[in-house]
Amino acid sequence: MSEFSSLIAKQPREGLSDGKKEFLRSLGSSQDSLEIFQPDHIVISDTVTSEELNKKIEIVRELCWVFEFFNQEDLDYPSSWNDLAYNIIEVLCENLRPLRGEWIWRDAEGALDQPRWILQTNYRLLASQMLKALAEILTFVYPDIDRVDFLRVVKSSAIFLNSDWPWSSKDASKTASKLLEFLPSELLDFTNINSDILKKEITPIFKSSRVPKVSGAGRFSIDSDLPMSLQTKIDAEHSKWTSSNPEAAPLFLYIITTSEESFLIENWSLIVPATMLILGDANPNYKAIGAECIHSLISKVNIRFLNITGLLPLFWDSLVGCLSYLPLGMSNITIDESIRLLDIAYDDLILLASIRARLPEFVKSASLRRTQSEDIDLDDKIIERRKSRLLDLILINGIYMTFDVCGDKVELARLLISKINIIVTEMGIFSIKHLKSYHCL
After folding, report:
1. CA-based nearest residue to 95, from 137, 33, 48
2. What is the C-alpha separation between 20 and 73, in angstroms, rounded?
3. How far is it, in rounded angstroms, from Cα 226 to Cα 214?
4. Taking a C-beta distance cutoff of 8 angstroms, is the pair 240, 168 a contact?
5. Is residue 364 helix, strand or coil?
6. In a 3-state reduction of DSSP, which class is residue 210?
7. Whole-angstrom Cα distance, residue 95 to residue 114?
8. What 3-state class would DSSP assign to 209?
9. What does the DSSP 8-state code read for residue 144?
């Protein structure tokens, strides 16, 4: 055991001892940087155990303390320290990915005693520490940060941005957000980064999957005999992407939310299948991510292009299907999962109602849709009337039906009432016919 390793073993959990600080100062003027840390100590295998994760947590916590100390000291470290730092950054980024296997998304009854839940809990603690260590090491190399592989750092941070995701936490989410803000914007080319992630990470995961009614160009297809619904035929090796690549959905969401309209249109044929497959997953948590992707797409992409694709009715039908994910009877869906999905699904449908109301009636002919896109300006009264009809469908087939079966669930009822208020405002004078129903609620 090296002198450094001996100090680690004796180190109290709350920070670095004075003796260790002096030892680190002495290393600052030496060439012994390779004694400080062996990167393979934090490599996470597919068969990692909870006990092994606990050990790695202590190692990474120590690593974070060490580089935090370096950043506070005004020492002239040898170049070998930077080389080690870049090596550690690479290893951290490589291992900042969710564990393989199906994730438990909630602490359901009995979950706390399951080995998988314990494994997930330890992983969340490790991931949070790894992100903090990554932030400290990036600070350490900042004068030469242009040597950092920004693509790796962005990928590793993006999948932890939402604390609701089971591999993340509030601490991890906060650190990941700060990491992305920390990266120098003048050195980042997000278009190329997002393009690399989409084409090299996301597309291979979904390339063998097929979405009915969507052509290879990402447009509505009239050649399919399958019904216009979100049913998919997925090759066996790709049917378990939520187990083999659970980070695909949040990473894809990051691409969609950070990309400009031009990028989305240019890569439309790759974006639409992935979006629909994530939205089509049976897990309501992944469906919610898919619905968020839809929201970004229809918010950013111009109405003329959306009209040409012919996909708006398919988006609509798929989102309406999300409204049935309710915490009923033998359903495994929790209140929180239902609320998370319904919240974004209703917002999407309300936005889609405004968009579709401004377009001619949907036609199957792609050439006719292109002709219509040249002149889609309709009379304001016609637009408002058509929008009110679509909003009627949301109220009658969505909110009212949900109230009938789940009206006793306070949190869900609160969400539905908030959506009714939005819809009534959007409908204007056409909402009068719903006043009686609204009053009864």
Report:
1. 48
2. 14
3. 11
4. no
5. coil
6. strand
7. 24
8. strand
9. G
- DSSP letter assigned to residue 441: -
Q: Record the tokens describing residue 396, joined without a space.
A: 């009658």
CA distances from 112 to 123, 125, 183, 290, 361 (A): 14, 16, 37, 28, 52
- Number of helices followed by number of strands (H, E) in the chain: 22, 2
Backbone φ and ψ of 234, nearest 5°: -120, 130
Query: Distance between CA atoms of 107 and 81, rounded to whole angstroms?
Result: 42
pLDDT at 91 over 70: yes
- Phi, then psi, of 210 in degrees rounded to 5: -130, 135
**Separation between Cα atoms, residue 118 and residue 116, nearest integer Å:** 5
Give DSSP secondary structure letters for 12-59.
-TTS--HHHHHHHHHHHTSS-GGGS--GGGG---TT--HHHHHHHHHH
As a 3-state breakdown, the chain gives helix, strand, coil percent values, each rounded to 5, of 70, 0, 30
Strand partners, 220: 214
| Positive/negative CA dihedral, 361, 357, 226, 367 | positive
Q: What Å distances lie between residue 93 and 59, 62, 127, 157, 190, CA to CA?
A: 16, 18, 10, 8, 18
pTM of the model: 0.85
- Please give the Cα distance from 287 to 140 (Å, whole number): 40
Q: How confident is the model at residue 48 (pLDDT cuts 50, 70, 90)?
A: very high
Judged against a pLDDT cut of 70, whether residue 4 lies above it is answered with no
Q: What is the dihedral of CA 372, 214, 258, 192, to 10 degrees?
A: -110
- Provide the 8-state DSSP code for 234: E
Q: What is the dihedral of CA 231, 233, 236, 242, to 10 degrees?
A: -40
Of the candidates 91, 94, 117, 122, which has an alpha carbon nearest to the alpha carbon of residue 106? 117
% of the chain with per-residue pLDDT over 70: 79
The β-bridge partners of 169 are: none
Structure tokens at 425: 């405002």
Q: Which of 240, 139, 247, 264 is nearest to 191 (CA)?
A: 264
